[in-house]
Design a protein that fits this description.
CATH topology: Nucleoside Triphosphate Pyrophosphohydrolase
Pfam families: NUDIX
Protein name: isopentenyl-diphosphate Delta-isomerase
Catalytic activity: isopentenyl diphosphate = dimethylallyl diphosphate
Number of strands: 10
Enzyme class: isomerase
Shape: globular
GO biological process, one term: isopentenyl diphosphate biosynthetic process
Length: about 230
């Protein structure tokens, strides 16, 4: 497939498909780089099992009572209009995002994308306050053309932040309590709310336990790569 595949999509989202993602093996060892477009084509995932590094941020307010969710913009190429966690994207094949000690590269990417998607000033997120919890390995088709196959670094942040949402990335935001999130999941069939597959996997397998330990997140850190495929 050639870049003509992107001609009917939003121009900015098509441009971002040329960013270079980090290719890894199943043990998260870096083995190369490839465009975001080629990483997300289901044809490539099915044919070569191409796997890339990603991150998912769960940002709670300072009290730890409310979690910030976003609804992905309709311009997004994968999972448009789906609700998901605060921010989810990819470390890029650039110097500051290739650093692996203490997950520093993925944390740098998270700070970059929190600003890009939600307008959170970078000085409002201290990198030492980005708590790494674990990694998940999952595969999720979006439609007949696009999908995800990722090793996803999961981060939790507690902070009160200013938001200036980028409408090309995010169409809506909402803060939810634990009970409100449970109701959102329980009633999604009735309400028509769509939830991204990685968000569902993380919530159903891990999030509530982490939320219960929001003031002692170091006790929850787990270096396992959880295979949820």
């Amino acid at each position: 497939m050639t870049d003509s595949l992107l001609t009917d999509y939003d121009a900015e989202q098509a441009r971002l498909m040329q960013e270079m993602c980090i290719i890894v093996d199943e043990n998260d060892k870096r083995i190369g780089a490839e465009t975001k477009k080629n990483c997300h084509l289901m044809e490539n995932i099915n044919r070569t099992n191409i796997l890339h590094r990603a991150f998912s941020v769960f940002l709670f307010d300072k009290t730890g009572e409310r979690l910030l969710l976003q609804q992905r913009a309709k311009e997004k190429i994968t999972f448009p209009e789906y609700f998901t966690n605060t921010c989810c994207s990819h470390p890029l094949n650039i110097k500051d995002e290739l650093k692996e000690d203490n997950q520093l590269g993925a944390k740098n990417a998270a700070i970059r994308k929190l600003e890009h998607e939600l307008g959170i000033p970078q000085d409002q997120i201290n990198i030492d306050d980005i708590h790494f919890l674990t990694r998940i390995h999952y595969l999720a088709p979006s439609d007949g053309i696009w999908g995800e196959h990722e090793i996803d670094y999961i981060f939790i942040i507690k902070a009160d932040v200013e938001l200036n949402v980028n409408p090309n990335e995010v169409m809506d935001i909402r803060y939810v309590t634990k009970d409100e999130l449970r109701k959102m999941f329980k009633n999604q069939g009735e309400t028509g709310v769509k939830l991204t597959p990685w968000f569902q996997l993380i919530v159903e397998n891990f999030l509530y336990k982490w939320w219960d330990n929001i003031d002692n997140l170091d006790s929850q850190k787990d270096m396992t790569i959880h295979r949820l495929i």
